Amino acid sequence: MRMRTISALVAVAALGMVLSAAQAADTPDAKIKLSGGSVAAGVGVSWASGTLTYKGKDYPISVSGLSVGDVGVTKLEASGDVFNLKTLGDFDGNYTAVAAGATVAGGGGAAAMKNQNGVTVNLVATTQGVKFVLGAGGVSMKIKK
Known about the structure:
Lipocalin, 145 residues, two-stranded antiparallel sheet
């Protein structure tokens, strides 16, 4: 009887550690917000500005290579979560698609991108009907100095 009790306690403790690790993995290290406007009908948008919120501070960022091909959209906004950001310097880089073209509830587009430092950005358009198109060379994101 005593052995069963000890085994049950060990199993509960192990399950608690697994759940804690899974929850920690789902917690973003930072948040990102992007905004842009239409360049020309049918050409899409190249994002011009954004903000990275990391450890309670806001950092302006520049973004190029991310566009949308939707005609008639004049102002676009997107936000998302940043994972695996160990230091601020790891954010700068060229991001390539992990997943793109998904549509989320409400009709907005979604994209998941990862850079050479292992930083992953999960981005969701808050403008309805927008689908992301990543440039052939990826998306460049850098903190403005």
